[in-house]
Amino acid sequence: xxxxxxxxxxxxxxxxxxxxxxxxxxxxxxxxxxxxxxxxxxxxxxxxxxxxxxxxxxxxxxxxxxxxxxxxxxxxxxxxxxxxxxxxxxxxxxxxxxxxxxxxxxxxxxxxxxxxxxxxxxxxxxxxxxxxxxxxxxxxxxxxxxxxxxxxxxxxxxxxxxxxxxxxxxxxxxxxxxxxxxxxxxxxxxxxxxxxxxxxxxxxxxxxxxxxxxxxxxxxxxxxxxxxxxxxxxxxxxxxxxxxxxxxxxxxxxxxxxxxxxxxxxxxxxxxxxxxxxxxxxxxxxxxxxxxxxxxxxxxxxxxxxxxxxxxxxxxxxxxxxxxxxxxxxxxxxxxxxxxxxxxxxxxxxxxxxxxxxxxxxxxxxxxxxxxxxxxxxxxxxxxxxxxxxxxxxxxxxxxxxxxxxxxxxxxxxxxxxxxxxxxxxxxxxxxxxxxxxxxxxxxxxxxxxxxxxxxxxxx
Length: 460
Known about the structure:
By secondary structure, the chain is mainly alpha-helical. Helix content is 49%, strand content 5%.
């Protein structure tokens, strides 16, 4: 399990402390699909990790994935909600409706933080479509309200913190969702997120971190020792004292010290634009936001988490029309990021219908032959939601990621997203967190690998 997965699991169970994991993987097998968070009480038959879903198969079994997309129907619908295209979404809903497993749909939506947008899309659809009964819609609406309240509170807390940094003369660069709030979206409700990422000018990160603690971001609940962050790109994560689970990461860089990219923070700062009314708070340019978005999904999360936000941010940035795409392509090559950028944009186009200029993809360069793109795309789709016990041994996932990104031809050397995981996993061990299931035998891993490869090639 990677560093990001360890952290994400911890975050999830802080926000949802009453939900113990049933299976040790990040994606909804670790969520009890008949828990009231995902289905209204008394309206949905109980679903245990072994009970069948729609069509007799377990809801997460790869046999339910689409032949072309490789996505589970529920994930396909969540990703279809990325764009503000009601007709496209309703056509997808009509096509997938009979096969949708509602608790899994809600669980995936919650994991991807897409619930407010998905709820909005479903409200516009025909009543009852896709199994969206009034009880289920009311339940989804309550979850959406929780997200919206948290976003309002996060905006308030962030503005207060930025005012403090402004008065102290600390230069800050907003990253990811926080930056996109002020550029591509304009309204926080249009871009749900769980934490805030800020890059602080060199030499003042500790001061900014301490000021944040004084401002009410006082909870340091990482089980990773402080010294483990010395080579990391951000300081120990902070949480707000209100108990809403709002996170804050004070960055000293955008990637760990050992990373394969030539993406200097000085480049971000030199082209950043100040926020209106603030002298010390800046936002990266649109092309840098797009490139960071691609790298965060393809490399930091290794395509395994955050697909909905990556697709939605790609769509929002491209729709603005102010991304210098020629410079974006040139910088992607210069910074050894072309393959990651290609896959993120390609997946956004294929999974969510984002309008990506084919010339941009040609400029980035297809990292593998065209037939291999189809097979690898199907694997990446399956990997979003398929636990190891249904055919994805960790080593296979690593090899398939390497086959897609081609790290060595890209100039990455031996650096991988999972490099150094052992140190972090040992440091992050929490005695209260349930352990992983027994390691499968070599025979079981080999059989699972063969079964998965057959599915990828045959499309079944």
